[in-house]
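Notebook B, p. 112. Complex prediction, attempt 2.
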Amino acid sequence: MSCSRWRWLLAPVATLAASVALAAPPAMLNLPDFDALARKATESVNISLDTSLLGLAAGFLDSSNPDDAATKELIAGLKGIYVRSFTFDQDFAYPSAQVDQVRRQLAAPAWQRLVQVSNSRDRTHVDVYVSVDRGVANGLAIIASEPREFTIVNIVGSIDLAKLHRLEGKFGIPKLDLPPEGRDGKDGKSDK
Amino acid sequence: MLTQALAGERAAFAALVRQHQRAVYSLALRMLSDRHAAEDLAQEVFLQLYRNLSAVSSQAHLAFWLRKVTMHRSIDRLRRAPRLESAAPAELAAAVSETQPADPLLERRLRALVGELPPAARAVVLLRYQEDLDPADIARTLGMPLNTVKSHLRRSLAQLRERLDETAAALI
Amino acid sequence: MSENQQNEALQLRLRAALRRVDPGEGFAPGVMARIAAEPARTARPARAGAVAGWLAFGLAASLVLAALLAHEWQARRLEQGREARRQLLEALRVTDEKLNLAYRAVNSQERAASAEHSGA
């Protein structure tokens, strides 16, 4: 499977890793208490997996199963994964103050913003940051705001995005119907 | 019937097969989009049931067991032979129409679109709308987080709606 | 029609479209033919006889208690591990989903810029 889709993200990461040498930054964000937000949400995801829980999870991945083995390999370099995601039944029902609190942490020198992109059609906005320590990317942060969903992802440790992409479609990781490279973005399937 | 089948009575087991064959076969058919592969897989599921009948404790557990094994085998089969995913919608429509009277065009189109969903999403949609399971039961059957099930349902419905709208637009 | 109503209508249609179908007359006989090649099932074995003597009973009770505690600990550990695995997969799913969201947005911008450029 081609990993060219992730060149747009991997190339800047590689460039940063090669050129930046900083003092050890905290790649782990201090996420605010989202209890009030969770009460307003119709669905919420609150995941905090530190090193020991990641180790426990890895112990329940079957190395003889290729997909499990690939997942184990993917998380081998991780020290933590933290996800806060909230879904609402109205557009933009989440306040920006708590999002801004996280963004302020990402303004620290050790965090480099790789991507800041908005899609006016879907009214979505996504920021992707990477934390670099002594030339090595050691953390990833994603802030995604959609009309009815707001998500923060913080990964501490090194993760191979190409490997994550290869796991699409497995274990309930949905295979998203994205247009292949080189097409004009229209769905190539024809109606019959 | 279950007790008699557990005691080794093959007639009782045959009755169990007849009682559950529609559910098992239909799930396999809509996962694999291939009548012969679905029949083969469904028979294997019942063969596996025969070998492991002592692990089944009740009728309710039996239904759960059959769905779980059918879906996991189907997803495994699709991963090993992804060409099954690209069976033409016409083939699936023809396969289904052999066992049912003429279907409305829309229902046939919907079945084809469901057959084009990724395996995990397709499994969730089938368990919800063919088997009428609630999301928690779907999560248990597939060994999937509940939020993942809900996400699949939400996104699949949006995708199906969008594809149906495209069909309607194309016909105008 | 509101989005909720559209969803309701779609769900009704899905239920109708995904009605169960029969596998055909030969299905059950086909299963039984494959089973005929299997060894005959036997009834579950009868339980062993009870252990006699108070001392033996006490020892057995202690062993059972220890086994139950160990089993309970194992069951809890198993559940914790399974839950950790579930959460891990969910976290990876969300991460990939949001990266794809960014990719789609970037792609959409590039296509719009390209269309504008070629139209100019």
